[in-house]
Amino acid sequence: MLRLRMNLEDLAHIRLGRPRMCELPVSVQAIQQVSHPYQRLWRSGPAVFPRRARRLLELVPAHGDVPLFLAPEMVDGIDEAIDIVQSTPAARIRAEMGAVPTSTRHRRSSWVDDLCRGRVETLRELGTAMRAYHDQVMAPLSLIHTRVVATELSRRSHQLATEGIAAMLNDLHPSIRWRSGLLEVAAGPVCADVDLSGRGLRVMPSVWPRPGVALGWSQPTLVYPIPHAIWLAEANTTYDGAVAALGETRAAVLQTLVQAHTTTTLAGAVSISLSSASAHAAALRRAGLVNSRRDGQAMVHYLTPLGLEVLTASKQPISDRAVDAGKQR
C-alpha cells in the first residue's frame, strides 16, 4: 500500500492531467490482456503486432510494474519520447528492469542485458521498436483514445466542481481511497509513506489496467484506469443488455450521459423531445443510474458509478460474462 500524505497546499494543487506519450508502455501491457478494451479495439483491426516492435514485449510484462523510463513525462511527440528514452542512464534502466517481473511467454534475452548496460546499438533498436509500435498500433487507435480521454476528463472535471475533491478521489478506482489527509493507493507490492509537502498531485486517466503513482516525475502523478464503460461508449460498441433492459432510447440516453448534459443538450444528442429527455433522465435517476442537479435555470444530468457499471456489464461479451461468473463460483 502506498500512502500519500497531503496538506491543504497539496489539495489546492490537485489538477487533472492528459496522458501523452507516457501511454506507450502501459498500452503495451493493456494490449497483452484479453479482457482490456484497448486490446479489443486493436483486435477489431488488422491486429498484427509489428515485428520490429517485439522487443517491447521483453520489457513490458502482461501484468505488474512497467519500467517508468519508457514513459517520459508530458511528452507529446514520438520523436521527443524516443530521444528521452535513449538518453536514459544505464543505472536507471538496470534498476527499473530489476523490478519488472519476467514474463513466461517473453523471457528476458541477452538483448535486455545489453540494454541495461546502455549499449548504443541496443538503445537504437529500442527506438525503432517504439516508433514501429506507435505508428502501427497507437496511431490507428489515437482518435478513439483521444475521445475516451476527453470524455473521462470532462466527467471528472464536472465531478470535481459539483461534488468536491474527496468524492472524486474516492470514485477513481476501488484501490484508491482518500480519508483524513491520506490518499491510499494499492499499487502492487509497493509499501511506503510519502509526504507530498505541498508539491500537489496530478490526477491522470490512463490505458494502464491498474492504479499507480509516478513519484519520480517533476509533478507527482496518480494514474488510474479509465473505466471500461467509457471505452465501450466512445468506441460505439452496440448495446445488448442495456437495450434489452431499458429499451433502445433509454439505453441511448444512458450512453450519452457518460458526459454531463443539460436536458436540452441531451434531447439534441439523442434526437428526442425535451419532455422525453426529461422523462428518461428522471426514470434513470429513480433507478440510481443517473444524478441530476440544477445549474441556474438548467438541469444537468450525469451518470452515477452504478450507471457506469451497468454500461460495462451490458456491453461485456457473453463469453467474458461466463468466465466472470465462473470465477465468482
Which features would summarize this protein structure in a list?
single chain, 2 domains, 4-stranded mixed β-sheet, disordered C terminus
Structure description:
The protein has 329 residues and is α/β, with parallel strands linked by helices. The chain folds into two domains: 2-225, no CATH class; 238-328, Orthogonal Bundle (Arc Repressor Mutant, subunit A), CATH 1.10.10. The chain has helices at residues 8-12, 23-30, 37-43, 56-59, 78-86, 90-98, 110-116, 120-163, 165-171, 228-234, 241-246, 248-256, 263-270, 274-286, 305-315, 318-328, and strands spanning 2-5, 14-16, 176-179, 182-185, 192-195, 201-206, 212-214, 221-225, 261-262, 290-295, 298-303.
- Estimate the strand proportion: 5-15%
First and last CA, distance: 28 Å
Number of folding domains?
A: 2
Largest sheet: 4 strands, mixed
Helicity level: 40-55%
Instruction: Give the uncertain stretches in residue-range form.
Output: 317-329
Structural class: alpha/beta
Count of beta strands: 11
Radius of gyration, taken over Cα atoms and rounded to an integer in Å: 21 Å
Number of helices: 16
Average pLDDT over all residues? 86
Strand order of the biggest β-sheet: 3-4-1-5
Order of helices and strands: EHEHHHHHHHHEEEEEEHHHEHHEEHH
Shape: globular
